[in-house]
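Translate sequence into structure tokens.
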Amino acid sequence: MSARIDHGTTSGTFELDGGSWEVDNNVWVLGDDTECVVIDAPHDAAAIAAVVGDRQVRAILLTHAHSDHVDAALDLRERVGAPLHLHPDEAPVWELTHPDARWDEDLADGQRIEVAGVTVEVLHTPGHAPGACCFHVPELGVVFSGDTLFEGGPGATGRSFSDFDVIVESITERLLTLPEDTTVYTGHGGTTTIGAEAPHRQEWIDRGH
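Result follows.
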């Protein structure tokens, strides 16, 4: 039974540095008919659980801890009975949304997670947030980029805990080195490919400075 990627969207708010913005988030579920992992936990645990269906959730993999990616994390963990995985460098960001709770398992660069016959490779890609991670699935030719890379360039770096030079370095060293035909499934908006984004790296740098 081959692995596949199921998609949904949820809507809510992103809150940081005293601001609040209405956002739509992508929900990605990687698995087969019996087991899966969930990428991020935005806004609505019931809607995410509906994408999962009756499958066993092996893990909830959090790309980073901005509120719009983790605000439903505790509810989702309870609903599907799966551990929350987050890079430990995200602790100060996580605590802004969940000051009295903690995730279950630390993510580490180079870690491999097996599900539905494929391997998820953890890539630590700081910049948008200090513990931001992308999840590469070589067998499927895809990477889940969270808010690190979008169609059109890097994720935002104008708020607390972010750094433009760091995100460009992360994208250059960890993502643009992937095969050009790798599909990029993002945290918001449409998909892209590594090959579509790579030629524009200098434009990002010029725009960012």
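Note: The chain has a mean pLDDT of 97.
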